[in-house]
């Protein structure tokens, strides 16, 4: 006899409330539209248009041929941790012990997750500056933390308003999450403000998570890291990686550097969740740190030229655009068009086949802006800007 199984509940009822509550990424949502628009020029992507420099790729290929295809220590290859410690010392004056303070992760994405997991208890507040990278709010929510948004605006170059920050700190604040130079605005944080933030963190006993993934792509002056401030050093979780600096997004490699009381927790979590980052990518990253400086510099030089061009074109067209200090994004003000960010981006895609990301994908304070990535060829940027000019003239005067 056949047994008939009946259950009036649906298995769909079983998915997690947290999973349901997290909003989909505004970028992904928009790119579904882009994929259905063939032949469009994309200023939407958030990754280098360069392929990984050949010497780095070759080292990865050699690692495979050489049989380096096994798990590495959980923390990562000791040699890579050592190269990272030397790199951070030489480039940013940071002091991290490679055997204790550094963990190799699957991109900064996993570094960020580990950082948040190591500090958040349910209900803890994490201060985030908007507009910001799409993952920040979602990652905090996934861990049952509460993102507390401090807006920044184009009028003051997307700088942090320190007074507003101070007012946002409550008894439940656990950490301040910084990102500089920023995705999507390209704005950095000056040393004076970082020192004030460090002092605030000490006074209120807060952790600082510092996402410095674009630190090697600064165009004026160098990059100053909050982790180099001695008073704050025991409360900073420093995040960086190889995706943007060495055009290695697909290799999925990053690292966290933090005091031992934090890396001890992160390493436990990392062991259970990932075991270790890719061995092959780690060997390639050693080569990147040994011999990749010239490649990084060549890419930075190209981005710098493109940044100057695209910024001046936006201003010429009548869409005010701050000169970003770093990364490879501009975040022009599209309000003269009279359209919302989303309508502007959809119209531009449909009429002129240029893909940009609506500023609202990076939080409510991104309204009135679009994010354009200049990680694409100068020819593409030139053509895209001509089309945007045509679109703006048509839109504003119709
Ligand atoms: N942090 C910021 C500010 C980013 O823009 C990105 C990627 O766009 C990431 C982290 C994630 O980088 P990764 O490829 O290292 O995971």
Description:
- The protein is an alpha/beta fold and 398 residues long.
- It has two domains: 11-51 and 295-396, Aspartate Aminotransferase, domain 1, CATH 3.90.1150; 70-292, Aspartate Aminotransferase, domain 2 (3-Layer(aba) Sandwich).
- Helices cover 42% and strands 13% of the residues.
- The chain has 13 helices and twelve strands.
- The protein has helices at residues 17-21, 26-35, 54-65, 78-92, 107-119, 135-142, 162-168, 191-204, 260-273, 279-291, 293-317, 341-352, 378-396; strands at residues 41-42, 102-105, 125-130, 146-151, 173-179, 207-211, 236-241, 254-257, 329-330, 354-355, 357-358, 370-373.
- The strands form three sheets. The chain has a seven-stranded mixed beta sheet with strand order 2-8-7-6-5-3-4, sandwiched between helices. A three-stranded antiparallel beta sheet has the order 9-12-11. A two-stranded parallel ribbon has the order 1-10.
- Strand 5 (173-179), helix 8 and strand 6 (207-211) form a beta-alpha-beta unit.
- Helix 3 (54-65) runs antiparallel to helix 10, helix 5 crosses helix 9 (260-273) and helix 11 (293-317) runs parallel beside helix 13.
- The longest helix has 25 residues, at 293-317.
- The chain is globular, with a radius of gyration of 22 Å.
């Amino acid at each position: 006899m056949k047994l008939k199984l009946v259950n009036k509940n649906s298995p769909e009822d079983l998915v997690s409330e947290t999973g349901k509550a997290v909003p989909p990424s505004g970028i992904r949502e928009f790119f579904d539209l882009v994929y259905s628009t063939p032949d469009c020029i994309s200023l939407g992507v958030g990754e280098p248009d360069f392929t990984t420099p050949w010497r780095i790729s070759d080292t990865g290929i050699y690692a495979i041929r050489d049989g380096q295809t096994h798990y590495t220590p959980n923390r990562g290859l000791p040699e890579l941790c050592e190269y990272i410690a030397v790199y951070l010392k030489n480039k940013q004056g940071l002091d991290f012990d490679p055997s204790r303070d550094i963990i190799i992760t699957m991109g900064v994405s996993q570094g960020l997750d580990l950082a948040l997991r190591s500090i958040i208890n349910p209900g803890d507040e994490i201060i985030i500056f908007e507009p910001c990278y799409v993952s920040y709010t979602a990652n905090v929510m996934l861990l049952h933390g509460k993102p507390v948004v401090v807006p920044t605006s184009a009028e003051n170059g997307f700088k942090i308003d320190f007074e507003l920050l101070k007012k946002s700190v409550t008894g439940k604040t656990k950490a301040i999450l910084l990102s500089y130079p920023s995705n999507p605005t390209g704005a950095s944080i000056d040393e004076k403000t970082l020192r004030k933030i460090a002092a605030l963190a000490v006074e209120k006993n807060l952790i600082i998570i510092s996402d410095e993934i674009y630190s090697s792509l600064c165009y004026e002056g160098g990059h100053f890291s909050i982790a180099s401030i001695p008073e704050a050093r025991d409360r900073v979780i420093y995040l960086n990686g190889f995706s943007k600096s060495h055009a290695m997004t697909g290799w999925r490699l990053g690292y966290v550097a933090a005091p031992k009381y934090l890396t001890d927790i992160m390493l436990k979590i990392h062991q259970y969740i990932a075991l270790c980052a890719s061995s092959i990518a780690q060997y390639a990253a050693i080569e990147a740190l040994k011999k990749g400086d010239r490649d990084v510099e060549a890419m930075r030089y190209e981005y710098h030229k493109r940044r100057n061009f695209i910024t001046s074109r936006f201003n010429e067209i009548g869409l005010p655009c701050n000169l970003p200090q770093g990364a490879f994004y501009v975040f022009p003000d599209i309000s003269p068009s009279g359209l919302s960010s989303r309508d502007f981006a959809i119209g531009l895609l449909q009429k002129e086949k240029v893909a940009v990301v609506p500023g609202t994908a990076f939080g409510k304070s991104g309204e009135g802006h679009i994010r354009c990535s200049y990680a694409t060829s100068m020819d593409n940027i030139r053509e895209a800007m001509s089309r945007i000019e045509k679109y703006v003239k048509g839109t504003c005067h119709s």
